């Protein structure tokens, strides 16, 4: 279970860094930036949901 969490964590941060770099490269286009922020917040929510459910499974 721990390796899975680490793998997901690694992929999540890789994706985050990719999004940040792309936003910087494209010169802060406001509409594009809003879309990326929405996608990122959605992914962040999914990430926390995954952590909470894994902890719940571990406790249960």
TrEMBL record:
The chain crosses the membrane at residues 38-59. It comes from the Eukaryota. Keywords: Membrane, Transmembrane, Transmembrane helix. This is Transmembrane protein, putative. The lineage of its organism: Eukaryota, Viridiplantae, Streptophyta, Embryophyta, Tracheophyta.
């Amino acid at each position: 279970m721990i390796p899975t969490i680490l793998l997901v964590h690694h992929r999540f941060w890789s994706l985050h860094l990719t999004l940040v770099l792309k936003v910087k490269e494209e010169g802060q286009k406001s509409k594009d930036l809003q879309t990326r922020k929405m996608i990122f917040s959605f992914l962040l929510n999914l990430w926390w949901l995954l952590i909470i459910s894994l902890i719940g499974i571990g406790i249960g």
